[in-house]
Specification:
YwhD family protein; about 25% strand; alpha+beta; single chain; YwhD; 8-stranded mixed β-sheet; about 35% helix
Length: about 200
């Protein structure tokens, strides 16, 4: 059965207030909200997927059952969000959804509700990668670690735990703890100086 073109996608995205992708970023660079695709051709960023218009989705008629697709190709869509931590911008949320495409037949299947829900989860900083295969997890991990170093170093502990042992990410965690201590110390000193200044003017 054919479900037709994806006409309601943009409205769903707008309702989540997730349309503000940084247009000044390079197309292959992670931004506040990014779409990472994993398939037999490898791993890549295609942020047009945020509006349901990634390269592999263009010209596709969506059906309601994978049995209607002659040669379905599995594609993992991983929403990646960033968040500013004390030491800089880092990977914050990761959530995966799966869809299938047969480019030659011009047919595909995806669960639109699941894609939108996973996008929302990633924005909220959740980690939902249970739909990925072991191979896809390895590909995703290698891809994320190969991005700008600060994005991995400043990732949340929940992100690190998917690919590193606690012992492996301990140095990065300690750096963050020390930075938080320094920030708290600076805050207290500023408050003390402000308080002393007010007392001098009394």
């Amino acid at each position: 059965m054919r479900a037709g073109k994806d006409e309601g996608w943009d409205k769903k995205v707008e309702r989540l207030n997730l349309t503000g992708v940084n247009k000044h970023k390079a197309p292959d660079a992670l931004s506040n909200l990014s779409a990472v695709l994993i398939d037999r051709d490898g791993v890549r960023i295609d942020n047009a997927a945020i509006h349901g218009k990634s390269k592999v989705e263009r010209g596709i008629t969506w059906v309601t059952d994978t049995d209607d697709i002659p040669e379905p190709q599995r594609i993992a869509l991983v929403w990646v969000t960033l968040h500013r931590e004390i030491l800089g911008l880092g990977i914050h949320g990761l959530a995966a959804s799966i869809f299938y495409v047969d480019s030659e037949a011009g047919l595909g299947y995806k669960n639109l509700a699941d894609q939108v829900n996973k996008m929302d989860s990633a924005v909220k900083g959740k980690i939902q990668l249970d739909m990925l295969t072991e191979a896809e997890m390895k590909q995703l991990g290698a891809f994320l670690m190969a991005q700008r170093e600060e994005l991995w170093v400043n990732a949340s502990e929940a992100v690190w735990a998917n690919w590193l042992t606690e012992e492996q990410y301990k140095p990065m965690k300690l750096m963050r703890i020390e930075a938080e201590k320094d920030r708290e110390r600076i805050r207290r000193e500023a408050e003390r100086e402000r308080s002393e200044g007010m007392n001098e003017h009394k």
